Amino acid sequence: MRNLFSILTIFTILCTPMTVLSHHSFSAEFDVGRPVDFTGSVINIEWTNPHAWVHLAVEDSEGNIQNWAVEMLGVNALVRGGMSPQTVITGDVLTVTGFGSRDGTNTANASSVTRTANGESLWASARE
Predict the structure, then answer these.
(1) Could you state, in chain order, the average pLDDT of each consecutive group of 10 residues for the chain (128 residues)?
(2) Among the listed residues 20, 58, 19, 34, the one whose alpha carbon sits nearest the alpha carbon of residue 109
(3) What local confidence, expressed as pLDDT, does residue 72 receive?
(4) What gap in Å lies between CA 67 and CA 79, rounded to an integer?
(5) pTM for this one?
(6) For residues 91 and 25, what is the distance between their CA atoms, to the nearest angstrom?
């Protein structure tokens, strides 16, 4: 009986979803030494957990369009802050302030997001 219990315990541990351990730390992915500030048009919104993402088309200094992926908070935190899936729609122009990724890609973690047309603050973190 004791062996059966041990085997079941080990089996349960091995079958536990690893997604619980998959959450990352901010400093592992983003660099506070790489501040970013840009304005772009919303291409897509991923209203998902553990973090919502906004994808923007941003024109660079040479007139080229760069696609940026912007990580926000989780959906529950955004809802508590007053946002919903309808707050931002494709085509909206947003200004993002935050921190760029450590790997140099066009990925950022947002400290604040503002609707450019009217200056409405959609979200701001305590890190800003």
Answers:
(1) 61 51 69 96 93 96 96 90 91 97 95 94 71
(2) 34
(3) 92
(4) 26
(5) 0.77
(6) 31
**pLDDT at position 125:** 75
Amino acid at 65: I
Secondary structure, 3-state, 97-111: EEEEECCCCCEEEEE
State the DSSP H helix or E strand holding residue 7, giving kind and residue range, or none if neither: helix 2-15
Angle at 71 between CA 70 and CA 74, to 5 degrees: 145
Of 62, 84, 71, 58, residue with least CA distance to 113:
71
Q: Where are the beta strands (DSSP E) in 1-128?
A: 30-46, 53-59, 65-71, 93-101, 107-115, 120-124
- Please report where in the chains the tokens 């701001």 appear, as a residue: 124
For the chain, domains (ranges, CATH) are 24-124 (2.40.50.140)
Which residues, in sequence order, are CB contacts of 87 under 8 Å at separation 6+? 122
